[in-house]
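User: I'll paste a sequence; please echo it back and then give the predicted structure.

Assistant: Echoing your sequence first, then the prediction.
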Amino acid sequence: MTYKYTTQTQYFIPEFEVDFENIIPWNGQNDTGRDVRLKWERNFGHIANNFKTLEEELRKLLRKDRNDKTEYLLEILGGVIAPFIESFDFVTGPMGAGFTLKRNKDGSSYCEVDKLQVRRKAVFQMLSIMETELSGASFMFNASGARATITKVERIDAVPFYYADGSAKYYSDGSRAYVQPSSQGAVYRCYFLTDDGETAIENRFKPGNLVRSQTFNIKEGTYEGVSNHYWWRLVTAVGENWIDVSVNHCDEGSDIPKVGDAVVQLGDIADPDYQSAIVLSAYGDGAPYINMYQGIDGYSLSNKDSFSVGYDRVKKECYVKIHGRIYIGDREGGDYISYSKSEGLKGKFRELYLSAGDSVINIGDKITFAVTEEEMKAAITQSADSIAISVKNDFQKAGLKVTSSEVLINADKFKITDGNGANAGLVFEWKNGKPMLRTSCVDVDSLKVKHLDGADGTFSGTISANGAKIGGFTIDNGSLNWKGRDFFGNDSRSIRLGVPTDDNSGMIDINFNGATDGKFGVKIIGSNDGGACIYASRNGTSKPHSSNTYAGYFDGGVHVNGNLYTNTILSNEFGTGWSLQADGSYTYKKGTTRTISWTIQNGSIPSRYRLVFENGILVD
């Protein structure tokens, strides 16, 4: 029978089409129940697959009751109304990363981005100008302390080629040979003063450093085509009073260096000693703040912040972000909280208070939890040697107390249910002043009773004793099992009587090897006329002849994989070269039945010969 179920929501249309099989509980006296079980198994398998399909479809939907994310483009055609929009890697400040667009509590809006392009017109009521150098309201500490102000800039596209001995290379026409000034191609050579008249300045820049300059120095008024001056480039070579920065190896959108630019080292493409920086600022959103960066090996600070302290103007509170290992507590580890990626979050507390609404938890020498509502009062109290739970209202009165030596339960009725809370597996209640225990199953190692009665003094139904022993047999899942051990304690032979457990088991399973005494797995001796030691029939309609007795009598086909040894074979048909087909049928070459005659003339005397074959065997 086929059932088809289709449902449609706003987002997806799952369709389930499953061929469920009709199940007839009893199909005659020869029904072992195996077909019914297999049908149940297949039907529930279809149901499970449907739930799996539904689960896969539901996973594609964005949740509305908790945080969720998607890696695909999300089109919101109706617009977005939100208190803020922020990238996952946002770090505030002129050296930060990512972006944010939000509304402050005072109603003002705030936006922080790396680059802003206005195609037509920009109007500023007030414009605050900052430079990212080692002065003013923001301070940056880089790994080398390298900083300089450019006094001269020249572009170099090629330099003369010299051999190892210092001699110049010339071509056959007498012209000089030139090569690119760096492996990255052309460079800008930026000069700076090495002595300002009072203090000698050391060139602390190194090849491989990343250097950055950023200024915004326009004055109040109306301008067209203006922007801040910014560049971040790779240092390819250094001299006493100059550095070469790459023309091509730079951040996207970098400007050309110019006189007056303040240059600071910020990162390195390979050396980790030059990949850290600290930024302190008392200006801008999030100020005051401190950001520590590590691993700056390119032109982005995204995910490079390892420690941040700042002020959230929207929530009006300080924040601390640490990416890595943290420990807060005394040196001896008496009271502390710690986190590491390998060990997770750990802590040891003398007292810990947790609260949510009217609920309060005090964790320490004593735990107290209390909820107060109009219709119910509940409490959980823990002391050094006990814990107590109590509930009281107009409908019930109950309590549980656990001490070091006993568990006390105060209730008119006590139930234990399944994980869904639906089925009561055990019920204890008071009736007529006497305790009564009701359950459908009792599993104990040892049960002693003074008096045991059935409803009428007898027991009916099925008594299950899984794992129990009867003599040398063990009852397991409705079967009797016996195992014999060899000298080393391993199983040498076994027998199982009961319902088959799978397609490879029978009503009787016997296994044995030569590790213990006994030559036979099954030994049967004796029979009588019209009988057999082993009788096997597909339907029981054929019986042995009343004048004969057999060691084995089989009504039906017998398939032997292996050699067959016998003194005499009687058969109405012989076949050879057989094979078993996928549908269970056999194909073979049948022996021929025919008479072959011929005559040999010896002079005038004929000699006649004849061969008679039946089923491929010469019989005359």
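DSSP finds one helix and 43 strands in the chain. The first strand starts at residue 2 and ends at 6.
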